Amino acid sequence: MKEKLTCYIIDDEHLAQEILEEYVAKVPFLELKGTFMSPIEAAAHLDRDKPDLLFLDINMPDLDGLSFIPMLNPKPMIILTTAYDQYALKAFELEVKDYLVKPFSFERFYKGVLRLYQEQVSRQLPEKTEAKAEPKSEQEYIFLKVGHRIQKVATHEILFIEGMKDYLRIHTAKEKIMTLLSFAKLEELLPAQDFARVHRSFMVAIDKIDHIERNRIRIADQIIPISDTYNDSFYKKLRGLA
């Protein structure tokens, strides 16, 4: 069984390289095989090392990260590390595994690489006969600051989340919970495969959707719009679940 994921860092900024090297060094199942200033420099070593994973910047001189990805054969797993968020849709069309917008925390970095490592390990385990284990979400509950208390919220009970300026309103079948939190931070906490952002002000639990009609989602007695900004990524996620 594979004990470590070997990786390259490809980034033309020395500070970004140092941060990634520090993050990689903290993770016992990652092994750094090389750090490079450009895709062209890294390409000369790919056949030798055959890394499992590339931490790849987008905007670099000579050859940008998005143009480099289609040239890779075989293609390692890719995590994009960039200061720009506008390339996310293009990146996921290229089947990257994660998209980290600088500056990102170690917590966010670790969550991404842990998911990849667990996927690799699960592929190598012998298939078991259908038995006791029931599928579980990546994260069964989260803790949110609600007023002066920290409240435990089961993720399977969430219907949708509504943005209220600086607050989020978490709608469950039982109650509505107000928390001082951003959508970006909440997306880090929730299991990505179970939730989808559909509007600047709304995120929905995919399994709670009753139906979709004319770019509007029905969940319980609530109608939630799908905005043009999130239209493509939302329907792509639905196709991936089909």
CATH superfamily of the largest domain: Response regulator
Mind telling me the CATH class of the largest domain? Answer: Alpha Beta
The CATH architecture name of the largest domain reads 3-Layer(aba) Sandwich
Strand fraction equals 25-35%
Total strands: 15
Order of helices and strands: EHEHEHEHEHEEEEEHEEEEEH
Distance between the termini: 30 Å
Features:
single chain; 242 residues; Rossmann fold; OB fold (Dihydrolipoamide Acetyltransferase, E2P); five-stranded parallel beta sheet; five-stranded antiparallel beta sheet; 7 helices
How would you characterize this protein structure?
- This protein has seven helices and 15 strands.
- It is of the alpha/beta class and 242 residues long.
- The chain has two domains: 120 residues, Response regulator (Rossmann fold); 101 residues, LytTr DNA-binding domain (OB fold (Dihydrolipoamide Acetyltransferase, E2P), Beta Barrel).
- Strands 2-1-3-4-5 form a five-stranded parallel sheet, sandwiched between helices.
- The two termini are 30 Å apart.
Helices, strands, pairings?
Blueprint: E1 5-10, H1 14-26, E2 30-36, H2 39-49, E3 53-56, H3 65-68, E4 77-82, H4 88-93, E5 98-101, H5 106-124, E6 141-146, E7 149-154, E8 158-164, E9 167-172, E10 176-179, H6 183-189, E11 195-199, E12 202-205, E13 211-213, E14 216-219, E15 222-225, H7 228-241
Parallel strand pairs: 1-2, 1-3, 3-4, 4-5
Antiparallel strand pairs: 6-7, 8-9, 8-12, 9-10, 11-12, 13-14, 14-15
